[in-house]
Amino acid sequence: MPEVSRPRAWAHRCARALRCVLFTAALMASLNAHAVEAGTPWRVAILMAADPALPAMQQHDRALRAALQAAAPNGVTFFTDSIDTYRFDYRQFATQFIELQRRKYQGQQIDLIIGVGDRAIEAVRDQRDAVWPGAPVVLAALDEKALEGTQIPNDMVAVRWSLDIEGTLSLIESLQPDARRLIVVGGSTDFDRALSERVVNRARARWQTESWNTLPISELRERLSRLDTSTAVFYTTISRSVNGESMFPGVVLAELTAASKAPIYGLYDSYFGRGLTAGSVIDIERSGREAAQAAISILSGTAGAPRTRTQALTRCSADYRQLRQFELPLSALPPDCDLRNPPRNLWTEYRQTVLVAGTVLLLQAVTIGALLLQRRWRRRAEADAGQRGIELARAMRFAAMGELTASIAHEINQPLGAILANADAADLMLRNGTASTEALAQILADIQRQDLRATEVIRRLRNLLEKHEVAQSPMALHTALRDALSLIEPEARRRDIDLDVSLEAADDRILGDPVQLQQVAVNLVLNAMDAIDQAAPPIRHLGVRTRDRADSIEIEISDTGVGIDPAQRDAIFESFYTTKPHGMGLGLPIVRAIVGAHLGSVQLAPADTGGTVATVSLPRRMNQNLSNEASRPEAARVDTTAP
User: Fold this and answer.
1) Second label for 540, Cα 20 to 30 Å away, from 138, 298, 437, 547?
2) CATH number attached to the domain at 468-643
3) What's the Cα-to-Cα distance from 482 to each of 402, 458, 487, 635, rounded to whole Å?
4) What per-residue string of b and e applies to 592-629 under the rule 16 or more CB within 10 Å gives b?
5) Which is higher by pLDDT, 522 or 279?
């Protein structure tokens, strides 16, 4: 026996090798023979095993045609037929069908035949042999498990898929962990029963499993209506009911879902939108694209096209509305599970637009927040600076009054001395007995006058030195100037300076702060007096005048001092710049800030007769709704040139 079997084994091996060589040669010859000539479209015949109106067939066909059209250099001409072998027995009408096809396509050349569905294999083979002998064939949408034991001709390229029953059962376990009963619903055709049996065999070890494939549709609806979420339903296909009525599986699913009180799971992508809750489903559109790629390899003459392609075309999918209806947790779905029919809102409908708009709004909010924070810091800094400015101005007033200490003391000592002398005279008269009522009345009146004189000096000094908040209000400029000059007149006499005051303006009403404007006058007058002391001219004259302008009032302070050095004009108003040996360099900057806060201007220019003329111009603003510029020292307009 070994001697006899050994030659047979070698013979079988040689025969298989020869068949492989012959198949390869035939396939290459077929490719070359059917390669599309330049300028002509691809001619493709599609034979569907199911009704082309089925949603699954429509999805597969759209994806297949779109991929072929995109790859064809000159377009594609399609020829489509259907045999619906899932509801009818092909062998009963095969002879008539082939004869019809022979007559229908007589004289029509075909470059490729595509059979869709595992039950189209026999019909494709018969049509190819009878109508287009030797035409290449691609078989698509083939269920790998259902084809076990089925011989696919060697000269046909097969694109298979594998139903993920196990994946769907695992999804049921995740969504309904407490379910102990599984109902498998199917139809009465051979295909329906075979698929239901596969599901039952897989599920039997996990659940109490029942197969409902021998019940009419009405009884199925009635039974499903009595279930609850402690039971899961696995729907396969119903192509024909138990009473022999042909049906569309998707249409039946919609009827059953309307009655069922338990969630229904399945294996096909086309079931979504008809009541399917979830499943590890076949991506039918992708299957169509895979079939198109196999067809393109043949039509374009690509060598080495694989004879069989098995693709992992399943994916986890779930319907949001069905999950909510049966109160199944979204969190139980795998992370990569595709969620169908999510709630319609801005996020789901316009996610990209929302992200872009949200990013823009976030950046704007950050920018606005930063600007508001910056404005807050700026206002705080301005308030601090304003407070420091008030304190500095007050310190400068103290410094100015320090220079007038001797004169002010003299002004106060004079009335005090007069009061003392009057008191001594009254005492002497009373002791001598010579006091008369009239004499005592005169003495008391003089004491009262001197007291009022000292009180007025102290009042003016106190008003100038006391701390107060800056507030601009209607005021009489001449009154403020007289109060300030009354404190300076004794110092002018002490320095032997002729102080000439001429307040000539007819209308001195302005909007301002009296104390601040008094400080302007004091600073400028003291500077003028210091300049006169430095020059020691024969004529020691200092003039203070006011005059009317069209919309303002001017204060002019002129002296016969040393004048302004032209090289110092640009720096004279800068802080801490001074020409005095013991000066602080803050008097004129404070003058500029105060005048600017009153929306006025200050000018220093050489006088025609020597010395300097300082001119302060203040607008007549009686409206208390002040401009925002009134709070900014930068508003001052400084001119150190001649007017």
Assistant:
1) 547
2) 3.30.565.10
3) 20, 15, 9, 27
4) bbbbbbbbbbbbbbbbeeebbbbbbbbebbeeeeeeee
5) 279
177-214 tens-digit pLDDT: 999 999 999 998 888 999 999 999 999 989 999 999 98
Common-topology check for domains 165-283+306-346 and 468-643: no
Q: Are 21 and 55 in contact (CB under 8 A)?
A: no
CA–CA distance, 326 with 335 (Å, rounded to integer):
20
Q: How far is CA 606 from CA 252, 526, 557, 588, in A?
A: 108, 17, 12, 16
Contact yes or no for 298/146 (Cβ under 8 A) = no
Residues 474-493: what's their mean pLDDT? Answer: 84
Q: Which of helix, strand or coil describes residue 286?
A: helix
Give domain limits for the chain.
11-161, 165-283+306-346, 468-643
* Greatest extent of the chain over all pairs of C-alpha atoms, in Å: 180
Task: Tell me the fold of 165-283+306-346.
Answer: Rossmann fold (3.40.50)
pLDDT of residue 424: 63
Distance CA 510, CA 132 (A): 110
Are 276 and 319 in contact, with CB atoms under 8 Å apart?
yes
Pairwise CA distance, residues 90 & 113, whole Å: 18
The structure tokens listed for 511 are 């909007």
Smallest CA-to-CA distance from 267 within 232, 316, 210 is with: 316
* Cβ–Cβ under 8 Å, residues 570 and 588: no
Count of alpha carbons within 13 Å of 38, Cβ hemisphere only?
0
| 437-465 helix and 351-403 helix, angle to the nearest 10 degrees | 140
- The total of other beta-carbon atoms located within 10 Å of residue 474's CB is 12
Torsion-angle region of 212 (φ positive above 0: left; ψ -120 to 50: alpha; else: beta): beta
* Amino acid at position 358, single letter: G
Q: CATH topology for 11-161?
A: Rossmann fold (3.40.50)
| CA dihedral sign, ordered 505, 508, 513, 515 | positive
**Whole-angstrom distance, CA of residue 583 vs CA of residue 462:** 24
The closest alpha carbon to 294, from 93, 536, 529, 27, belongs to 27
Which residue, chain included where needed, has tokens 């005090």?
A: 416
Pairwise CA distance, residues 302 & 529, whole Å: 108
